[in-house]
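Take a look at the protein record below and tell me what you see:
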Amino acid sequence: MKLGSRRYHRRFALLSLLAFWGGAAFARDDRPAGMLWHDSYTLDYHRGVQASPLDGRPSVAITNNKDMDIAVWPDGRQVAATRYDARDRTTTFVVMNPATGKAVYSGTLDGHVSDLSPSPTDRRLAKARLSETSLTAFEEHVLDLATLKSRYRIADDDHFSWMPDGRFMLISIKTGRMRIASLDGGPETLVGRLDIPPERRMGEFAISPTGREFIMKLPLRNAVPKEADLWIGSIDGSRFEQLTQARAIGSALWSPDGRYVAYTVDTGHFCGIGAGGGYCVGSCDQWYTPVGLRKVRGFKGTPGAEAFQVSNRSGQPHELNCHVLAWTP
């Protein structure tokens, strides 16, 4: 089924409701501000993505399909939804304006396309993982979603993150060399070198919206399963310090103003046998922390394990559970 079909777009009809929110949300006092895009099922028992303002206004449903992956541009004014068809080995996508619900781009790509990371300055561009299937090795590219062409192939031994001005940083997994590059083909600029604790291995990283700091997920080398925590450092690799001490970090992202980091803590899973056979159910906690804290434990009631307070679609206050997918103004 093509993304441009009438049936497909009906699943995105609720996007137009975002226009009634009347712009960005602002925090009262010193609380975090903005919009949280999430798939927390328990907020409204909704299987799909919702958006919840942090100023207490009601949440709005974005998609009605739990099989779609969502990526949001940093300003919140464009949303991409992808869906992989394992039978056809193709990924269909649509990029939409949430204020109008209208499609900007749509198409179908061969293979499995995942982990879209939109450019902060260009509505056509997003970093993506490309593979033949969801189980095979992947390559990372910067894609032009208007032409479906690759603009840049990221080396297998580099980690990638967008910078606020539309350039990007590459960190070598082998050497820790930190370089800034752009799509115009100019030379890379070496800005620093990152030293990883010997008991850890380098993971993915994300640069703050201020462009001054970054966070990185560092799993323990010999732990099974891979126990991970967050580190935070300056953009040149200096002042690289442990942000969390939870040993079970799942995902993490920045607040729009760079003052907070939202993160999840994997709290284990339960396996059992039901009428349909064996099953496993995972669980996690969703928190945020000010960036000035260190070695945050990630336990309820401890510093740096702050819960998001939002309202459901009926306007009733709730504590938000996993997972926050994006945090926009």
Summary: The CA atoms of residues 254 and 268 lie 24 Å apart.
